[in-house]
Design goal:
Elements: H1 3-38, H2 45-56, H3 62-86, E1 91-95, H4 101-109, E2 114-118, H5 121-129, E3 135-142, E4 146-147, H6 149-157, E5 161-169, E6 173-176, E7 187-190, H7 192-197, H8 199-205, E8 208-211, H9 215-225, E9 230-234, H10 236-242, E10 245-248, E11 258-265, E12 279-284, H11 292-302, E13 307-314, E14 322-329, H12 335-347, E15 351-357, E16 361-362, E17 364-365, E18 368-369
Parallel strand pairs: 1-2, 1-3, 5-16, 7-8, 7-9
Antiparallel strand pairs: 3-4, 3-11, 5-11, 6-9, 6-10, 12-14, 12-15, 13-14, 17-18
Helix pairs in contact: 1-3, 2-3, 11-12
Length: 370
């Protein structure tokens, strides 16, 4: 084959690839539409690696295989850019103000979306229910302070589904006005959970703690008052946002302080969206009788599902009665899962599958996990 024949062959291949490119991007647009509807982020690192490993096996030539993987990575990057453009209109509800940890979480999970602040967890949740927003990003648990009961209660009584759970490492800092010093601080504002996470630090310095709606609101108040005896506990991002000085870093007691954020959406993900190592959420009540809870637990165990979380929550409209929250490993739509749910309905007056998702992921920016 001479040079011209080789070039003609490349041109013919390029023409075929152009057709395949259009076909691929049409499918990508469908993926973007599905992700927007179900509150899924564009990038899924684990899924991408699985695809690359599977596709690499299509190339028998050892020398060319690595180049094909490189070609696929570039193709995937183009696909992700296109998905981001298609999903720019995604509206993400969160509770708090700009700079709050929920706002930071929403931006990390959906970097191309428009983040919309709401005054409370319930308002953010209802924004999705009412259609004002597409998804909500809300905290469900902190590794130090425990569950966020208000959000779990919304999960129990509301109609939304959880499509993803993400772990974010939280670093709390003491923020003051530009002319403030630690020695001059007398009062510290922050969200009650942040104050709890930093209780030892606050006590050791003799600071008087006061609750605020969230960490960013606390920082906003400090910035507006300009009182150097007043400080806030919040993130480094929040300090930049409100022009405050970081008086002390890492003031939370636990160095493994992580908050789990759940993505809530109106549509429940299909079984095809579940990944290996996934989990599902169950919410249920049991009969008021001896061994009522044990019966439900035994049903779950009998169908080979491992419960990694089991908690009780009081029912607001029925004093001294409780519902239960379970996170279990596996696929609730498998045959074992369907059989389990059928058996649970025999012993649980109320039973709800609140969502399913792949294993919780860490979200980072600039190499520093928040």
């Amino acid at each position: 084959m001479d040079l011209q024949q080789a070039r003609d062959e490349i041109r013919a291949a390029d023409e075929e690839m152009a057709k395949l490119f259009l076909r691929r991007m049409a499918a990508v647009s469908e993926v973007a539409a599905y992700k927007k509807e179900h509150g899924l982020p564009v990038f899924d690192a684990a899924q991408e690696e699985r695809v690359l490993q599977g596709r690499a096996a299509l190339i028998a030539d050892d020398e060319l295989r690595s180049y094909y993987v490189q070609f696929l990575r570039h193709t995937m990057d183009v696909s992700k850019q296109y998905q981001h453009r298609l999903m720019d209109g995604l509206r993400v509800a969160y509770s708090g103000v700009e700079g709050a940890f929920a706002h930071i979480a929403a931006q990390r999970i959906f970097p191309a979306a428009h983040s919309v602040p709401y005054a409370s967890f319930e308002d953010a949740y209802n924004a999705v229910t009412d259609g004002a927003c597409d998804v909500a990003v809300l905290p469900i648990e902190n590794s130090y302070a425990g569950e966020v009961g208000q959000v779990v209660d919304l999960m129990f009584r509301g109609s939304l589904y959880v499509s993803g759970v993400y772990d974010l490492y939280i670093t709390q800092n003491l923020l003051g006005t530009p002319d403030a010093t630690i020695d001059g601080v007398r009062t510290v504002l922050s969200h009650p959970q942040a104050l709890l996470q930093c209780k030892g630090y606050l006590d050791s310095h003799g600071f008087e703690a006061h609750a605020a709606d969230n960490t960013a609101v606390a920082a906003q108040v400090v910035a507006e008052k300009g009182d150097k005896s007043l400080a806030a506990i919040a993130s480094a991002d929040t300090a930049k946002l409100y022009g405050l000085k970081i008086l002390d870093h890492d003031v939370n007691e636990s160095r493994a302080n992580t908050t789990r954020f759940a993505v809530f959406t109106r549509a429940q993900g299909s079984p095809d969206e579940k990944r290996e190592g996934g989990a599902f959420l169950l919410l249920f009540t049991v009969n008021d009788e001896a061994g009522g809870l044990a019966k439900a637990i035994n049903v779950i165990a009998a169908h080979h599902f491992n419960m990694r979380v089991l908690r009780s929550r009081p029912m607001k409209n029925l004093p001294w009665h409780y519902y239960f929250y379970v996170e279990a490993e596996g696929d609730d739509t498998s045959q074992d899962g369907r059989d389990m749910l059928e058996a649970l309905r025999e012993v649980c007056p109320i039973l709800k599958v609140a969502g399913h998702y792949s294993a919780a992921e860490n979200t980072q920016q600039g190499g520093e996990t928040i």
